[in-house]
Amino acid sequence: MGGYKVQGKTLSAIETLVKDAIALDEAGVCCLFLEGIPREVAALIRDEVEAPTIGIGAGPECDGQVLVFHDLVNLSSHPPAKFVRRYADAAELITGAVTAYRDDVKNGGYPNKPSARNERNPSTSQVCRRRVAPEPRRHCFWTSGTGPIPIKDTQPESADDGGTTVSRHGREEACRRRS
Question: What is the pTM (predicted TM-score) of this model?
Answer without folding.
Answer: 0.54
